[in-house]
Specification:
mainly alpha; 2 domains; two-stranded antiparallel ribbon; 6 helices; coiled coil
Length: 193
């Protein structure tokens, strides 16, 4: 009888250990699947961004998005002279940072505007230019030939203020389109006439 009870107990223990091992394996697989799902979600986001870039490279997003962006940006700039100065400073800083990065990567201008990435690019530019002692003051042309020298660090502060004031995150626009739009508004639009 004791042997029978020991056999039953050993079977139950064996079954329980088997369940523990299986649960451990299942938990490991679950973690692996979570990692795979996160990776796939990142890939989907990347593909969506690429698709949107292709769409406004072939013109299908421009009417829907760029015109609205242009109108809202025009309203923002012309709302006050302070906004005009702010955008002019931001334009000059972005222009030099974008041109610097385009020398290293020809596709840079075709990328979509991303607030966080551009902030990193500006910081990298400022760090490298300070390290190499190539940092230069920017000449900002505000209006009707009025020019002002502005320090890149001040322009970066303007960029942060601009991001907080004008919500660019809601637009899908390439860096090239952004610069073309800002150039048109800041340098072709005559506010006094």
């Amino acid at each position: 009888m004791e042997e029978f009870i020991l056999i039953i107990i050993s079977l139950i223990l064996g079954f329980w250990q088997g369940l523990r091992k299986r649960n451990k394996k299942n938990n490991i697989k679950t973690e692996e699947y979570k990692v795979k799902i996160a990776t796939l979600e990142d890939e989907i986001k990347t593909l969506n961004r690429k698709l949107r870039l292709q769409q406004y490279n072939n013109g299908s997003l421009k009417k829907k998005n760029k015109e609205r962006f242009e109108t809202d940006l025009t309203s923002f700039i012309t709302m006050s002279m302070d906004n005009y100065y702010l955008c002019a400073s931001v334009y000059c800083l972005l222009n030099i940072v974008f041109r610097t990065n385009t020398k290293m990567d020809r596709t840079y201008y075709e990328q979509e505007f991303n607030v966080e990435q551009i902030s990193i690019d500006i910081e990298n530019y400022l760090d490298e230019s300070e390290l190499n002692e190539t940092n230069i003051d920017l000449i900002v042309e505000y209006q009707k030939g009025i020019k002002k020298i502005i320090n890149p660090y001040d322009a970066f502060a303007c960029y942060k203020e601009w991001i907080n004031s004008f919500n660019i995150d809601i637009y899908s626009i390439s860096l090239k389109e952004l610069m073309e739009t800002m150039y048109f508004i800041l340098y072709e639009l005559n506010l006094n006439e």
